[in-house]
Amino acid sequence: MERHEVLIVGGGNAGISLAARLLRDGVRDVAVVAPQPVHRYKPLLNYVGAGEATMADLERPMADVVPDGCTWVRDAVEAVDPAAMTVRTRGGRTLHCATLVLCPGLVEDWEATPGLLQAYADGWAASTYVPGSTPQVWPRLSSLREGSVVFTVPPEPASCAPTALKPLLMACDHWRRSGVLPDLDVRLVLPAGTATSLPEADRVLEEAFDDYGVEVLREARIERVDWDVHALEVTSRTGRRVLEDVVFAHAVPHYRAPVWIADAGLAVDASPGLVDVDPQTLRSRRHESIWAIGDAADLATRPSGGGLRKQVSVLSKNMSAAAKGKPMRHYDGYTVMPITVSRRKLMLNEVDRDGAASPSVPFVNPFKPHRWAWLFDRYGLPQVYWHRILRGRV
Ligand SMILES: Cc1cc2nc3c(=O)[nH]c(=O)nc-3n(C[C@H](O)[C@H](O)[C@H](O)COP(=O)(O)OP(=O)(O)OC[C@H]3O[C@@H](n4cnc5c(N)ncnc54)[C@H](O)[C@@H]3O)c2cc1C
């Protein structure tokens, strides 16, 4: 049977940056199980959906991002046996490890919104969250001249959900500049009463929605999609409503964790089935040699790539502290929700677990939109990601 000192499930932001960090810290045998041939820097997907980036800007071959010295098992995990400390893969392999880290991210729950998958297939729905459909988003949005267009923010758990507002607000700015905004009925389906539940950020966003004439449906969700007639059935705070003749829907699917986590008895619940960890130490509450970070872990904060910078650092230190019986560090729930309010202005929305401002640059108000923040998010952070974060240097 194949054995590894540390086995990481998932080769996304969490898995690759953790593998690199552990190797830097001197762990000798690290393996990553990751099925996909391509690694994506997901935050740029929203810029593809706004015509500000291409898929080539955010994709790299997986082989190029797996750190030197790390074993890449190109396969998908199908089952975990926590008692035996083994995982079984789709390809029929059984891998044994001393320490297991789960970071497989979230999977789309298409069944939560009947008809949505068909609307994607039909081409009138697409989103930055579904990479196969992302290249269609900007050509569709930028060619709209009139009619009804609908955007959604996915309910949690979802990957940095409020960033789904980026394509909406950048498109509104574009439509206004091209003079077609008054001829469009723009609607936003929000899962909660406000966009972020951060009062300072919400104040700025509500002004932007008002200014662009976006109708906001609150505490709302798309119950089903009549894909053949382009209609969305939405329930909201004000009741049930059918949005007819939708020309384009930037409708993000709902998400859940992979089912094999709950099947192994490692999840908080059956659905959405996030890994049950201590949100401060990142260690499983059910098995002391199992840990989890990233979108699939229940960390009592909004999942984000920015949050992973801190999670990776805390986890690498805690794995070593646990082995030596030393006290563990705590993750403060730091997260970030960068949102564009126009084509060239962005607010970072960096907060801790309690929603208090937690700026990376001291004295900068993270709820104030800035042009430099937009440039940093679009051009600076991708460089930091490829050259520092994925190499375990942050
Ligand atoms: C459209 C979009 C915009 C975003 N914008 C921002 C932003 O502006 N700022 C920010 O900080 N964050 C942003 N995020 C969030 C950020 O990208 C995620 O929080 C981060 O990618 C989570 O990393 P992860 O490794 O946990 O999950 P992922 O990046 O999803 O990686 C999980 C990996 O595990 C693999 N996997 C899945 N199942 C298995 C299995 N069974 N076996 C083995 N491997 C498996 C998957 O193939 C995937 O590669 C955005 C996310 C999206 C989708």
Small-molecule binders = flavin-adenine dinucleotide
Mean pLDDT: 97
Uncertain spans: none
CATH fold descriptor of the largest domain: FAD/NAD(P)-binding domain
User: How is the main sheet built?
Assistant: 7 strands, mixed
Number of helices: 11
Give the secondary structure arrangement, pairings included.
Elements: E1 2-9, H1 13-24, E2 30-33, E3 38-40, H2 45-48, H3 55-58, E4 59-61, H4 62-65, E5 71-73, E6 77-81, E7 86-89, E8 94-102, E9 107-109, H5 116-122, H6 134-143, E10 147-152, H7 165-177, E11 184-189, H8 199-212, E12 215-217, E13 221-226, E14 231-236, E15 239-243, E16 246-250, E17 254-256, H9 259-263, E18 290-292, H10 305-324, E19 335-336, E20 339-342, E21 345-347, E22 350-351, H11 371-389
Helix pairs in contact: 1-10
The structure holds flavin-adenine dinucleotide.
Residues 9-15, 33-36, 42-43, 45-46, 76-77, 103-105, 128-129, 159-160, 163, 258, 294-296, 303-306, 308, 336, 338 line the site of flavin-adenine dinucleotide.
Explain this structure to me?
- The protein has 394 residues and is of the alpha/beta class.
- The protein folds into 2 domains: 2-106 and 257-330 and 385-389, 3-Layer(bba) Sandwich (FAD/NAD(P)-binding domain); 118-254, 3-Layer(bba) Sandwich (FAD/NAD(P)-binding domain), CATH 3.50.50.
- Helices cover 28% and strands 24% of the residues.
- The chain has 11 helices and 22 strands.
- The strands form 7 sheets. Strands 1, 2, 5, 6, 7, 8 and 18 form a 7-stranded mixed sheet that branches. Strands 12-11-10-16 form a 4-stranded parallel sheet, with helices on one face. A 3-stranded antiparallel sheet has the order 13-14-15, with no helix packed on it.
- Helix 1 crosses helix 10.
- The radius of gyration is 21 Å and the shape is globular.
- It starts with a strand and ends in a 5-residue tail after the last helix.
- The mean pLDDT is 97.
- Bound molecules: flavin-adenine dinucleotide.
- Residues 9-15, 33-36, 42-43, 45-46, 76-77, 103-105, 128-129, 159-160, 163, 258, 294-296, 303-306, 308, 336, 338 line the site of flavin-adenine dinucleotide (FAD).
